[in-house]
Amino acid sequence: MLAILGASGHGKVLADIAELTGWSSIEFFDDAWPDNQHNGVWQIVGNTEDLLDNLESYKGVIVAIGNNKIRQQKLLQLHSAQANIVSLIHPSATVSKYTKIGLGSVVVAGAVINPDCIIGLGAIINTCSSVGHDCTLGDAVHICPGARIAGGTHISDRAWIGVGSSVRQLITIGEDAVIGAGAAVVQDVLPNITVVGVPARPKP
To answer: Residue 132 in contact with residue 114, Cβ under 8 Å?
Structure first.
């Protein structure tokens, strides 16, 4: 049985991937329980503390929270409790056998990850995005749908790469940086700033 922490739209995507990859039984946990009882067709059975108290009942656990910082915090909490954290890769994704995917990460339908990439813990490689060869992605990074990351790029922990954006080869993006939707990144991005536009510049 798979436990998913975070009953959100993203959680539905993870549950769908889980079913496609052989998980026959899935239960959700969410801190809005018991007010929320279902996430689509799947049942919410408890909150974070309930999951921590019942980890032995689950063969795998994954966090489905879009907020990078909260997702990382929950993963660290589960890791400290010795949860069996798993990753999920959609059958239609193309992932090189020479790439390493960190625990708790998800690769969604249509995504492409090329050779010799290192993907950290709890990363989201979202729908139809691509990660070029020799890239390094830190922990809890989110590559949003349709984003394009060229080869040799380094993306630091918790960075958010927006929908439809593109990042030139050999770029470094700092921790907690945000790349706006549709932005074109052609130079390094400092930590903790938001860049937007073509070419991408710090948001006023």
So the answer is: yes
Q: Is 105 left (phi over 0), alpha (psi -120 to 50) or beta?
A: beta
- Could you read off the pLDDT of 10-28 as tens digits, one per residue? 999 999 999 999 999 999 9
Question: How does pLDDT run across 15-68, given as a tens digit for each residue?
Answer: 999 999 999 999 999 999 999 999 999 999 999 999 999 999 999 999 999 999
Secondary structure (DSSP) of 73-127: HHHHHHHHTT--B--EE-TT-EE-TT-EE-TT-EE-TT-EE-TT-EE-TT-EE-T
User: Which of 111-140 are b and which e, b meaning 16 or more Cβ less than 10 Å from the residue's Cβ?
Assistant: bbbbeebebbbbbbbbbbbbbbbbbbbbbb
- 85, 83, 80, 76: which is closest to 104 by C-alpha? 85
Q: Would you say the C-alpha torsion 125, 12, 21, 66 has a positive or negative sign? A: positive
